[in-house]
Structures are given as structure tokens and as C-alpha cells.
Amino acid sequence: MERAEIINHLSMACRDWGFFMVLNHEIPKRLMDGMLNASVKFFNQSEEEKNEYIHKNVLNPIRFGTSINNHEDKIRYWRDFLKIVVNPEFHFPVKPFSFRNTLLEYAACTRKMGKELLKAIWESLELKTDDIEVALDIKSCFQSIIGNFYPPCPQPNLALGLPPHSDHGLLIILLQNGINGLQVKHNNKWLHIKPLPNSFLVNIGDQMELVSNGRYKSVLHRAEVNGKSTRMSIATIIGPSREAIVAPSPQLVELDHHLAFNGMRYKDFLEQQQANPTQGKVYFGFT
User: Fold this and answer.
1) Higher pLDDT, 112 or 271
2) Contact assessment for residue 173 and residue 113, using Cβ atoms and an 8 Å cutoff
3) pLDDT exceeds 50 at position 144
4) Considering the chain, what percentage of its residues have pLDDT values greater than 70?
5) Burial of 40 (0-12, 13-18, 19+ CB in 10 A)
6) What is the edge-to-edge ordering of all strands in the sheet holding 200-204?
7) Per UniProt, which keywords does this protein have (predicted)?
8) What angle separates helix 29-43 from helix 99-124, to the nearest 10 degrees?
């Protein structure tokens, strides 16, 4: 398939769905499996070991949390999570001991893939690919990796793994352990997404909606749980620099004859979104 045709398919996927699947990538399967296995080992540690990383500050570089059996929620959620900032500074939990090296390699590989995808998405918007480096300071991009652990739920019909939400970055690269549970809202219907083996799901984040002047919209999605199998997912969020002021591309504003959003510092948006993780989609600075 010629590059022009690929870019056209990518444009349609971003515009019509906000999700697409990546095959024939260069990330080895042994690293994909290794990242999933290392994450499971973290969640299988004792509560004392995991609780070392419980922090209230949403910008803390390593955060563990759980909503399992948390009766404060109006709706029951059934998930443990581990959020780690891996760029521009690399952080990692001390245990399990094998986690650091696997995380370091996986973060580098997904960051490289994410930057290539961003250039292709930029190209699909008919923008100069070099401009993205300047506009969003991609060399200092914010990258975080989130491990989501969904053990079997005794009452799956009464719980969700994650409520409907959009993601705060430019794009999100999702790896799963083969147990499906992701649902995407499309045309006001919740659809099950079943990725092909050895693939990644990629979705548009809130910052891409902003910078594209609303041409590519972030999409609400949620996670189901089940009563039989443990589901594990690894979400890699690629965002602009935390200090970048993210605003619609001037070229697109000129073409659209309309400024859809005001600019906003990514760090401020991140704090707002992470402080209200169950509110769905954060709406930023409409003009």
C-alpha cells in the first residue's frame, strides 16, 4: 500500500472513529509479553509493597491505586492501576526487580512508534510534519505508562473496570493480554473492540482534538469486567511537553474559518483531568 493511501486511511479512522489498530509494527512480541508479565508481577505483590506508591498528588511520577471494594464510589469500579511517568524523566518502581529494564525498553519503543504516528497524523491534516516538533515540543514529550489490572469480578453485571472517559494526551497506545473488555462509543452506541493478535490499539486524545481544531475528536471509551478471567492492559500516553501551550493549529483555523478552542497549558489540563477521573470528558476552553 502506498504511503498516500495509508495516510488517507489514517485520516478517515481519526475523523470517523478516533480509534485505529496498528499491525506490522517493530515492537517485538517478547517485549509486549514481557511488559504484561512484569505488570502482573507488580500487582501480585503484597499490599504493603504496592501501597508504597499510593499518592494523592495526581502529578506524582509513580502512583498506585485501587477501586476494588471501594464503597465510596457511587458506581462500583473494579480495577487496580499503576501510573508511571517515563519521559522526559524516567521513573520506575523498585519492585519487582525485573520491572525497570522491561519498562525502560518498552517506553523507548512505544515513544518511537508514537512519534512516527504523530507525524503521520500531522501529515493527514495536511500540515508540515516538522511543525509538530515546534508547536508541541515533542522532543520533551510527556509520556506515561498506565497498567490496568482487572481481576475476575464476582458481580460483573454491577461493576465497570473504568467508567466512560477520554484520554488527556495526543494519542494513546494500548496493549492488552488477549482478554477483551474495551468498549468505544460510536454513533451513540457502545461497541466492543476486539484487536487482532500482536497488534496495538491507538486512540486520539484530548490534546489532538484541541490542536486539530476539532477535526479529530477524542472518543469516550470504557472497560468492562468479567467473572472468570483477569484482564491486563497497558496504556501508553504520548502528550506534548507539560509546559507547552496547546492551541489549534493556525493553518487549520485559517482553513476552517473558525477557532474552535482557546489554548491551554498541558500541565493545567492534566491536573484538571486527573482530579476528576470519572467525569467523562473534560471540555477545554471553547471560544
Assistant:
1) 112
2) yes
3) yes
4) 93
5) middle
6) 19-22, 200-204, 171-176, 231-239, 142-150, 80-87, 62-66
7) Oxidoreductase
8) 120
Name the percent of the chain in helix, strand, coil, to the closest 5.
Answer: 35, 25, 40
User: How far is C-alpha 216 from the chain's CA centre?
Assistant: 16
Q: Which amino acid is at 98?
A: S
Ranges of each domain in the chain: 3-275
Cell numbers given for 214 = 476539532
Q: What are 202-221's pLDDT values in tens digits? A: 999 999 999 999 999 999 99
Three-state DSSP at 245 gives strand
pTM: 0.93
The closest of 165, 170, 168, 198 to 182, measured between CA atoms, is 165
Q: What is the pLDDT of residue 72?
A: 47
CATH assignment of 3-275?
Answer: 2.60.120.330
In this predicted model, what pLDDT tens digit does every residue of 62-92 receive, in sequence order?
999 988 655 444 557 899 999 999 999 999 9
Q: Using an 8 Å Cβ cutoff, are 137 and 221 in contact?
A: no
User: In a 3-state reduction of DSSP, which class is residue 242?
Assistant: coil
* Structure confidence at residue 157 as a pLDDT band (50, 70, 90): confident
Residue in the block written with cell 477557532: 259
Grid cell at residue 27: 515492537
The secondary structure of residue 210, as a DSSP letter, is H
Best CA proximity match to 181, nearest among 228, 231, 227, 236:
231
Sheet containing 182-186: give its strands across.
162-165, 221-223, 182-186, 189-192
| Cell 486539530, located at residue | 212
Decide: helix, strand or coil at residue 231.
strand
